[in-house]
Amino acid sequence: MKKPAPLFLFSAMFLLLGIESAMSQVGFETSPPVSNEELRKYPPGLGDYGKWHGEAHEKGVVAKLRERTKKTCCDNIGECRSTVIKMTPSGAIAILERRWCRVDVKIVYDIQNLPGGWALVCASKSLNPNGCPTVYCAADEPKM
Q1: Is 102 found in the same domain as 44?
Q2: Least crowded by CB within 10 Å, which of 26, 29, 88, 102?
């Protein structure tokens, strides 16, 4: 089993390489902000903490997502929020807190009636060093 590097090595990397380069070396890539031009394509607040959260509960979407993934986030650590998910060559990304953030969980595609027809991502309220929340689970409309 590989031993983790001592904390002083990470500190030295931050000083020598700069924060963005050091973060990528330890697994935190800086997530790019979504441009204002692109944000104008979507409803205001899409991807922000709690966007259409109540509607997702009312429609039973959160209950279905919990059932399919066996995960929950609608408590003190996070909330579901409506957003857009895009597939890229390196994986799925979603607008979360006005940044393009990686969605490193299996996306559920068989849940209907997502609020506003947008994807739903359950994620933490707190942000990681890359500016993105931790994603717990995600659902999107079936892709035709």
Answers
A1: yes
A2: 88
Phi, psi of 20 (to 5 degrees): -65, -45
If one counts the domains in the chain, the total is 2
Half-sphere exposure of 48 (CA within 13 A, CB side): 8
pTM of the model: 0.73
Q: Is 118 exposed, middle or buried (0-12, 13-18, 19+ CB in 10 A)?
A: buried
Q: Output the CA–CA distances (angstroms, integers) from residue 78 to 45, 50, 52, 103, in the order listed.
A: 17, 9, 14, 15
Query: Is 125 part of a structural domain of the chain?
Result: yes
- Is 144 a member of any domain? no
Co-location of 65 and 101 in the same domain: yes
